[in-house]
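Page 37, continued from 36.
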């Protein structure tokens, strides 16, 4: 069956956007189906979440064209995932391990939502206004910091007994000589602090110290040194920032309450750590993740490091015993290893036992979720299906790049060079002059006098002549494009106009030979995938709700007119490179 796009013609999208622009459009519910690819559903919520991650990963901007491009990439991925299943990729150990871990994560997350975040009340009007006031306030804060809760309690008792805070800070932070700034965190705003620290700091009077406060880093005793208030709290600014403040307030509550929820859960497990086994795991991780002069560029452990850890561990070694639902359970080195790919690198490397605790938390939440049958929850099923398709699609892409590379033809290389912006300006020299005129009317009058020969431009007091390399300033940008040997009016802004005359100009551009190897490498990587997709699209069943897609953009105030087209800049380059395999491929997807 040929690929199909239903529920709206793209050529009429701009009419729909124009009609919607006159009135507010609500964001469609997350559960609505945006597209179907061979029976796989892509919901509004799933697209939005995936698209935000795509923007973060690529550094691109949110535009209608980039949204359409991302939807195309999802469709490509689903088709490749089905092909990967046909080739047996869904039976490989790496995929099975990935799915086991992601199912547990999804079930655990749903358990957390069900028992905590779903019941969290919305912030009240008073709470939102109070958060707005706090956002305008700056606090000078000092603290004592401890890794151990008992040490924090002992320090607190010493402060209550009258010991000086600054002297104790010098002891806690082990300063070589007395330092009056010991423990001083500086002038900070409410939103810049750890959630737990911010909540307590807000309640303290100037000079007052707090009981020990637990943050994600350890234990703190806080003292407010000074408060700086911003007396200007306007209603217009509050209304402008209201939505973002509500969102930030809810997120902070989720983090604070969520931390307490998980902490109470873990404290109820009667966790017992095998100290000998724990030291062995820490040593194995430290050996596998040897420090380097350059910090790792990724946030999770690499495949090579993962393999090194696996070789150093004995999977059956029991690290932790705990009690859950009245039954004693064990958490082994093998269980910890299976969670390593999703644990934060720095935590694994520098706080290994904290990463063990995070892995245990993931395991426990999953067990509780499975006990309630949450693996059958619609949200969990939708998440797992999407992740499975994404993994299989990417796995097939990697296979094609590694094992089925295709050398591009010279015609394909030249087309990419001509169409994708590789022919860039490398240098520019010019000989030009300007006369500052001020208003546009005076600039036009001067231009006419100069053009008719009635005025020698060099006699004007604001005449400036330049010859040499052009810079990256706004004026140079116009000089690079201006008509030669003709006086022109140039207004950089209102009442800031010039007469510009470019006598000579030399522009040097990148030549094909300079970037041919780069283009060939990119095409060789993409051609196998695109040639495969060219065979998959004619047989695919694809449905896109274009009306819903436009409504989503309109809800985000993306004003039209707009007809789908390839994204600009890097996205366009990628898109056209992908067409090199078969120019008809994308045309089948876009009527």
């Amino acid at each position: 069956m040929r690929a199909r796009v239903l529920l709206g013609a793209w050529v009429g999208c701009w009419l729909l956007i124009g009609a919607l622009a006159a009135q507010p459009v609500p964001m469609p519910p997350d559960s609505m189906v945006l597209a179907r690819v061979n029976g796989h559903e892509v919901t509004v919520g799933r697209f939005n979440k995936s698209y935000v991650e795509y923007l973060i990963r690529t550094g691109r901007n949110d535009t209608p064209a980039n949204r359409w491009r991302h939807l195309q990439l999802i469709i490509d991925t689903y088709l490749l995932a089905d092909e990967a299943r046909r080739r047996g990729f869904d039976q490989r150990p790496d995929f099975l391990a990935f799915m086991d871990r992601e199912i547990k994560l999804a079930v655990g997350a749903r358990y957390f939502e069900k028992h905590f975040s779903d019941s969290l009340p919305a912030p009240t009007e008073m709470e939102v206004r109070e958060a707005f006031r706090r956002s305008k306030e700056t606090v000078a804060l000092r603290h004592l910091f401890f890794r151990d809760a008992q040490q924090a309690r002992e320090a607190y008792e010493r402060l209550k007994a009258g010991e000086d805070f600054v002297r104790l800070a010098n002891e806690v932070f082990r300063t070589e000589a007395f330092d009056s700034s010991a423990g001083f965190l500086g002038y900070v705003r409410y939103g810049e602090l750890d959630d737990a620290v911010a909540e307590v700091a807000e309640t303290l009077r100037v000079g007052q110290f707090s009981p020990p406060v637990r943050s994600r880093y350890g234990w703190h005793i806080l003292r407010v040194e000074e408060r700086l208030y911003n007396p200007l709290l306007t209603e217009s600014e509050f209304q402008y920032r209201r939505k973002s403040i509500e969102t930030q307030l809810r997120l902070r509550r989720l983090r604070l309450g969520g931390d307490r929820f998980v902490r109470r859960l873990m404290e109820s497990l009667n966790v017992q750590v095998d100290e000998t086994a724990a030291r062995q795991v820490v040593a194995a991780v430290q050996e596998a993740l040897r420090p380097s002069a350059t910090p790792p560029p990724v946030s999770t452990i690499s495949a090579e490091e993962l393999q090194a850890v696996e070789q150093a561990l004995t999977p059956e070694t029991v690290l932790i015993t705990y009690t859950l639902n009245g039954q004693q359970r064990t958490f082994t080195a093998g269980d910890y290893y299976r969670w390593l790919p999703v644990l934060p690198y720095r935590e694994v490397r520098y706080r290994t036992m904290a990463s063990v605790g995070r892995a245990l938390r993931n395991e426990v939440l999953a067990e509780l979720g499975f006990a309630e049958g949450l693996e059958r929850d619609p949200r969990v099923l939708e998440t797992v299906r999407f992740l499975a398709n994404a993994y299989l699609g990417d796995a097939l892409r990697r296979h094609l790049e590694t094992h089925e590379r295709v050398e591009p033809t010279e015609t394909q290389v030249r087309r990419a060079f001509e169409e994708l912006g590789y022919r860039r300006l490398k240098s520019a020299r010019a000989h030009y002059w300007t006369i500052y005129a001020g208003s546009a009317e005076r600039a036009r009058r001067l231009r006419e006098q100069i053009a008719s020969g009635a005025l020698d431009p060099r006699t004007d007091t604001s005449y400036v002549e330049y010859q040499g390399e052009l810079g990256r300033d706004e004026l140079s940008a116009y000089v690079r494009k201006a008509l030669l040997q003709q006086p022109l009016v140039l207004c950089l802004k209102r009442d800031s106009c010039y007469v510009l005359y470019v006598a000579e100009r030399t522009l040097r551009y990148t030549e094909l030979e300079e970037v041919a190897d780069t283009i060939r490498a990119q095409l060789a990587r993409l051609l196998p995938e695109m040639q495969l997709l060219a065979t998959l699209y004619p047989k695919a069943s694809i449905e896109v709700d274009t009306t819903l897609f436009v409504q989503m953009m309109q809800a985000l105030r993306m004003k039209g007119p707009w007809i789908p087209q390839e994204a600009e800049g890097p996205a366009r380059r990628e898109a056209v490179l992908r067409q090199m395999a078969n120019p008809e491929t994308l045309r089948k997807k876009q009527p």
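The chain has four domains: 10-87+540-588, 125-254, 268-372, 425-509. Flag for discussion at group meeting. The mean pLDDT is 81.
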